[in-house]
Amino acid sequence: MWSLARSSSSSPFASVRSSEIQRLRQAILDVYANEGYASAIVDPVVTEPGPNQKRVAFKIDEGAKVRIGKILFEGNTVFSVPRLHNAMKKLKERNIFLHPFGKKLIWNRESWAEDGENIKKLYMNHGYKDIIVGEPRVDLQARNPEGRTQKEKKFRMIVTIPLQEGRQFRMGNLTLEGLTVFKPESLSKLYETKTGKVYNYGKIEQGNEAVRTLYHSRGYIYAYTAPELIERKDEAQVVDVKVHVTEGDRYRLGRLEFSGNTKTQDRVLRRELRLFEGDWMDMSTLKRSVFKVNQLGYFKLKEDPLEFKFDEAGKLVNLTVKGEEVGRTDIQFGAGYSELDGLFGQFMFNTRNFLGRGETLGLSASFGKRASNYALSFSEPYFMDRRMVIGASIFNQEQNLDETVSVQQYYRESKGLSLVWGVGVGDFGQFSVSY
């Protein structure tokens, strides 16, 4: 039971109103429903503990989690019920073999909003541009109606989704308007559509995305597309698509800064970017570059890592990349005892960002009664500030398996040196040779 008290209007608080009580009741019900307790009952109980005072208590029967037992459709003739179920990714009906448990069996508004769009896209990708996915009807069905409490009644949920499918349309002509940077015929090739084929919303969106990406890679960071569907009056169920392109202004990269790198030098992070100050603001290259910075492993980007500040007069974008230093050094100690080696010890040191310059330095040693191993390694990923990696390691290993017999037969010692040289290939590749 949850309660609150409000005094009369002589106090700083307003008097308790019936509408306010119902609002609070519904808010509590929504919290329970969002967690899957759709059968919860919330009853307000109003009492008067004293003159000019009212106390509101909410008596709650939480019940148990209610899972989706059935998802039904009304008005579907184009697609079967299993096909529509398959289009829904966030909500599923309970099935002892496919979906016996899980969050997808719990109804909530956020999941339905996404699955409503998934159903709509299924129809629109097959030419049904006027599909209407109605508001679902949610009913609770008690498997044990005689139960004393909501939990004992064992509810399951029946969801019914109404559909108005409309007519299927075929593709007419595709035109682009508002172009000054590119020619219409070159951008039309980005759309995988053909006149006479079934209208496909997904193909049009893929083409729009390709057009926006092309503009964004040339510095037109505000470019966007707005498709318009025009039904032909002289030809039934044929739709022309007119894409309105707004290009906007072209911007260059202004000042580039990093925030949060207290140990890592700026140049170590800056060299991972394929975009330089003064270049056209290529958003595709910027995304790849930011991914490369995050891949370093010792500078972790924030959840929202990019901060843009616009200089409208100079058509510049000043960019700050935000992150934080993460553990770059590993140190391990170990010791033990074995029948063969007796007491032995181990030590390992490895840093991925030596002195904040992006270099890797490693040292390891293990020693015991019959064996000892030592190794030292170093690598520089940007030799002379070029995408050229050089590295070297040296090692020394000794083994003495039996001290009671001749050294020539059971004693082994090896020393060595390895060298690595490599160059970067593309944004993420590398060619290297070692000796």
What attributes characterize this protein structure?
435 residues; alpha+beta; 9 helices; 20 strands; extended
Describe it for me?
With 435 residues, the chain is an alpha+beta fold. Helices cover 20% and strands 41% of the residues. It contains nine helices and 20 strands. The protein has helices at 18-34, 81-87, 109-124, 150-153, 184-188, 201-216, 266-270, 283-295, 407-410, and strands at residues 2-7, 41-47, 53-61, 68-74, 132-133, 137-142, 155-164, 170-177, 224-231, 238-246, 252-259, 299-311, 316-325, 329-338, 342-354, 359-368, 371-380, 388-400, 411-425, 429-434. Strands 14-15-16-17-18-19-20 form a seven-stranded antiparallel β-sheet. The longest helix is centred in the N-terminal third of the chain and has 17 residues, at 18-34. Residues 5-14 have low confidence and may be disordered.
Radius of gyration: 34 Å
The largest sheet is:
7 strands, antiparallel
Low-pLDDT segments: 5-14
Query: Number of helix segments?
Result: 9
Structural class: alpha+beta
Q: What is the element layout, followed by pairings?
A:
Elements: E1 2-7, H1 18-34, E2 41-47, E3 53-61, E4 68-74, H2 81-87, H3 109-124, E5 132-133, E6 137-142, H4 150-153, E7 155-164, E8 170-177, H5 184-188, H6 201-216, E9 224-231, E10 238-246, E11 252-259, H7 266-270, H8 283-295, E12 299-311, E13 316-325, E14 329-338, E15 342-354, E16 359-368, E17 371-380, E18 388-400, H9 407-410, E19 411-425, E20 429-434
Parallel strand pairs: 4-7, 8-10, 11-13
Antiparallel strand pairs: 1-3, 2-3, 5-7, 6-7, 9-10, 12-13, 14-15, 15-16, 16-17, 17-18, 18-19, 19-20
